[in-house]
Amino acid sequence: MKSRGIRCERCGHLVAAASLAVLTLVGCAEKSNTVAVATVAGNAPTVTVTRVIERPMAGSLVASGLLVPREEAAVTAEVGGYQVDKVLVEEGAEVSAGQELARLDPGLLLARINQAKAGVSQAVALAEQARAEADRVKNFDARGVMSIEQVAAREFQAKTAEAAVAVARAQLEDFLSQERRLVVRAPVAGIVLERMVRPGDVASLSQPMFTLARDSLVELDAEVPEDELAGIALDDKATVSLPSGDSAEGTVRLVSPRIDPLTKLGRVRVSLAPHPQLRVGGYARAVFNRTGKPVAAIEEKAVQWEASGPRLITIDANNLAHPVLVRTGVRDAGFVALEQGPPVGTRVALGSGVALLEGDRVNPVEPGQAAAAQEQAQ
């Protein structure tokens, strides 16, 4: 019985059927493995990736607070016990230094001034008389008409009368000074914030009559969290949003060295340029613009937010995914700073990597490659 076989195409020899069966199985196995590998590669999802880069982050800090005068001046009467005759300014008035704000009734004081003037005249007359008598008897002791003691007594009386004149004049000057102080004047230039006096009130040395904002300067007294306060420096620029909807440009004038132990907030004073909508006591919000040093940053859409915190899906050299927890910082122009995370140059999956788990294989595509693929497909 002849053996059945098939002639080999390469060498021309006959191959037994059994051998053919073995070759067939081996060939099928190789083909099966190839298909399996292709299937595994075909199951890897295509993921758009970006990279951690180094860039300067111009972050912004938002803080709010109240509008306050840069320096507040309380105006009180210099003399008390007199009735207010006239009030010359209202709240909101712009005043200059030395301008009259109110006048007190001088009726009671005028009587004292007239009395003091009469007292001066009387003292002067007595002093002139005493001096004339002292001069007249000055040489009587040498003639033996009067004793030395009597002559000295006349001289003493003259000097006493002259001293009385000085006392009377000082008393008159005191009353005249009080008369000048019956006019209440502005100690500094500025805007009248509050008027607490009315005609007919009795002036008191302890009760302010007016409150002024010196030089009409209004500032924002902003409250800033303790951890953000270190990022604000003197002369930093800020944009302040007013309740009216307008905005005003400001400059940081003062950063408080003290932190409130209860709220853990520090205060920052922002000087503002004059603006018609600046009203003391109003609420305002400031945005501090800051330019930082170059730091590691990533596109915001690459950051995934979970209960455990923000994380990134990094892609290693073998195209395997690895979730990594990160700590983010300031944001600017679609990027977020990485205070803690993978180093610069690391590949990171964008939004499509949400469902990736540890060790998942992916087919990474750079954003430029993905755009080119779409153009070819169209």
What keywords describe this structure?
rod-shaped, alpha+beta, Elongation Factor Tu (Ef-tu), domain 3, six-stranded antiparallel β-barrel, 6 helices, conserved putative lor/sdh protein from methanococcus maripaludis s2 fold, six-stranded mixed β-sheet, 378 residues
What does this structure look like?
By secondary structure, this protein is an alpha+beta fold. It is built from six helices and 25 strands. Strand 14 and strand 15 form a beta hairpin. Among the domains are: 98 residues, conserved putative lor/sdh protein from methanococcus maripaludis s2 fold (Beta Barrel), CATH 2.40.420.20; 82 residues, Efflux pump adaptor protein, beta barrel domain (Elongation Factor Tu (Ef-tu), domain 3, Beta Barrel), CATH 2.40.30.170; 76 residues. Helix 2 runs antiparallel to helix 4. The longest helix is centred in the middle third of the chain and has 33 residues. It is rod-shaped, with a radius of gyration of 48 Å. Helices cover 29% and strands 36% of the residues. The strands form six sheets. Strands 3, 19, 20, 21, 24 and 25 form a six-stranded mixed sheet that branches. Strands 5-13-16-15-14-17 form a six-stranded antiparallel barrel. Strands 4-18-23-22 form a four-stranded antiparallel sheet, with no helix packed on it.
- What is the CATH level 1 assignment of the domain at 46-58 and 293-377? Mainly Beta
Number of strands: 25
Helix content: 25-40%
- Largest sheet at a glance? 6 strands, mixed
**Shape field:** rod-shaped
Low-confidence stretches: 1-41
* Structural class by helix and strand composition: alpha+beta
